[in-house]
UniProtKB/TrEMBL annotation:
<dbReference type="GO" id="GO:0043565">
    <property type="term" value="F:sequence-specific DNA binding"/>
</dbReference>
<dbReference type="InterPro" id="IPR036388">
    <property type="entry name" value="WH-like_DNA-bd_sf"/>
</dbReference>
<protein>
    <submittedName>
        <fullName>Lrp/AsnC family transcriptional regulator</fullName>
    </submittedName>
</protein>
<dbReference type="InterPro" id="IPR000485">
    <property type="entry name" value="AsnC-type_HTH_dom"/>
</dbReference>
<keyword id="KW-0238">DNA-binding</keyword>
<dbReference type="InterPro" id="IPR036390">
    <property type="entry name" value="WH_DNA-bd_sf"/>
</dbReference>
<dbReference type="InterPro" id="IPR011008">
    <property type="entry name" value="Dimeric_a/b-barrel"/>
</dbReference>
<keyword id="KW-0805">Transcription regulation</keyword>
<dbReference type="Pfam" id="PF01037">
    <property type="entry name" value="AsnC_trans_reg"/>
</dbReference>
<feature type="domain" description="HTH asnC-type">
    <location>
        <begin position="4"/>
        <end position="65"/>
    </location>
</feature>
<dbReference type="Pfam" id="PF13412">
    <property type="entry name" value="HTH_24"/>
</dbReference>
<dbReference type="InterPro" id="IPR019888">
    <property type="entry name" value="Tscrpt_reg_AsnC-like"/>
</dbReference>
<dbReference type="GO" id="GO:0005829">
    <property type="term" value="C:cytosol"/>
</dbReference>
<dbReference type="InterPro" id="IPR019887">
    <property type="entry name" value="Tscrpt_reg_AsnC/Lrp_C"/>
</dbReference>
<dbReference type="GO" id="GO:0043200">
    <property type="term" value="P:response to amino acid"/>
</dbReference>
<keyword id="KW-0804">Transcription</keyword>
């Protein structure tokens, strides 16, 4: 894959906040034609920089259980695990991290039973070496943009 230039980074910045933005609007914002913007987005998708588009749903129920799953992989990267995680709407955020862990997975589930089920599904993936669960008791500080 070619190195990302400023226009590519602009596209990614806008799409990360507005995944459903019309292509014409995106093109106008970055100062390229619609066809040039379309080609760049297609190239970013083909190269794997853009792996998909999603709806970011806010918390709908205050009775949700929030947890962090700390995942250690057999080897990195493991697109198979990321693909599996992307299938579950309860997975809110996945971050690759440094140190002994490989992934921090933030989930919101309706119950402890569902947390256990989701945890078991992820833990049995062949690429997962270890998984530790931390349940969020309360959010003391939370900032949104």
């Amino acid at each position: 894959m070619k190195e990302l230039d400023a226009k590519d980074r602009d596209i990614l910045g806008i799409l990360s906040k507005e995944a459903r933005i019309p292509l014409k609007t995106l093109a106008g914002r970055i100062g390229l034609s619609r066809s040039a913007t379309s080609e760049r987005v297609a190239a970013l998708e083909k190269s794997g920089v853009i792996r998909g588009y999603r709806a970011d749903i806010g918390q709908m129920d205050s009775n949700l259980v929030s947890a962090f799953l700390m995942v250690t992989l057999v080897s990195t990267p493991s697109m198979g695990v990321l693909d599996q995680l992307a299938r579950y709407s309860e997975v809110r955020r996945v971050s690759s991290v440094t140190g002994q862990l490989d992934l921090m997975v933030e989930v919101e589930v309706p119950s402890i039973d569902r947390l256990n089920t989701l945890r078991d599904i992820i833990a049995t993936h062949p690429s997962v070496q270890d998984l530790t669960t931390l349940i969020v008791l309360r959010r003391d500080i939370e900032r949104r943009e």
